[in-house]
Design brief:
Elements: E1 17-19, E2 22-24, E3 29-33, H1 40-52, E4 57-59, H2 77-90, E5 94-97, H3 104-107, E6 113-116, H4 124-132, E7 137-140, H5 147-159, E8 165-169, H6 187-194, E9 199-201, H7 203-207, H8 213-223, E10 227-231, H9 249-269
Parallel strand pairs: 3-4, 3-10, 4-5, 5-6, 6-7, 7-8, 8-9, 9-10
Antiparallel strand pairs: 1-2
Bound molecules: phosphoenolpyruvate and manganese (II) ion (MN).
Manganese (II) ion (MN) binds near residues 205 and 231.
């Protein structure tokens, strides 16, 4: 069996993944947007608000991997068209999830980066397919996966010919129930030792509640992450999906301001 370990840290430089005008792996990248694309108004207003607050990229699911088959599954193509419009109006590049190998090619025509969600981290057919795509891939950590398993999943994408992989820690399952998941902050410095790939944190799915997101975002900066991805909704009470963790635009603006200050301090003291 070949073992090329393309993810492994070599003498070469760290990978910087370019998504539109955003460069992940250089400075600190903030990705924000709704859990799911619900309506044109909700998505475009959120996009404008997060751009105004300093976001570098817009997130939003058109295909949602839901625990229950009866929960909102996303708007599909209609959602992608809304995201495209949001990009046209704000200039923000878009990351959106793809859940099915059959959708990778055509979703790539709308997305600036493809997200592989936690539940699909070891969907090896999907990993091979996004590995053939010409768009960067944001690979979330499986909620029950070790760092080694996660890196092997990244390896599938790299080995299939796509060098642009961003790793996203989003919390793992532990015995704790107060938080939705347990943010493995140590994954950040561990990955910095193990790989040249950029690493970001998703505090929203880790915490599952708004009150903890600022602290976890600042912890991401302090730990040396390359960015964060957070969920923002113009009206969290009405969010169809993940409302308990949805920030208002105002809360998001406060967090980005503090992220900026801490990142500056870290850079100056490095
Ligand atoms: C998401 O980011 O939209 C999502 C579904 O997250 P996760 O795959 O981490 O649960
Ligand atoms: Mn969500």
């Amino acid at each position: 069996m070949k073992d090329k370990r393309l993810f492994a840290l070599k003498e070469t430089e760290r990978t910087v993944v370019q998504v539109g005008h955003a460069r992940i792996g250089e400075g600190f990248c903030v990705i924000a947007g709704p859990c799911s694309v619900e309506t044109e108004r909700q998505t475009i207003e959120t996009a404008k608000a997060v751009k105004e607050a300093g976001a570098d990229m817009l997130r939003g699911g058109a295909f949602k991997p839901r625990t229950s088959p009866y929960a909102f599954q996303g708007l599909g193509l209609k959602g992608l068209k809304i995201l495209k419009k949001a990009r046209e109006e704000t200039g923000l590049p878009i990351v959106t999830e793809v859940v099915d190998t059959r959708d990778v090619l055509w979703v790539s025509e709308y997305a600036d980066a493809l997200q592989v969600g936690s539940r699909n981290m070891q969907n090896f057919s999907l990993l091979k397919e996004v590995g053939k795509a010409r768009k960067p891939v944001l690979l979330k950590r499986g909620m029950n996966s070790t760092i080694d398993e996660w890196l092997n999943s990244a390896e599938y994408i790299l080995d299939a010919g796509n060098p642009n992989v961003i790793l996203c820690e989003r919390g793992i399952r532990t015995f704790e129930t107060y938080t939705r998941n347990t943010l493995d902050i140590s994954a950040v410095p561990a990955l910095k030792e193990l790989t040249h790939l950029p690493v970001i944190i998703d505090p929203s799915h880790a915490a599952g509640r708004v009150s903890l997101i600022q602290s976890l975002s600042l912890a991401a900066v302090a730990a040396g992450a390359d960015g964060v991805m957070v969920e923002v909704h113009i009206n969290p009470d009405e969010a169809i999906c993940d409302k308990d963790q949805a920030l208002t635009p105002g809360q998001f603006a406060g967090i980005t301001k503090r992220i900026g200050m801490l990142h500056q301090f870290m850079a100056a003291s490095a």
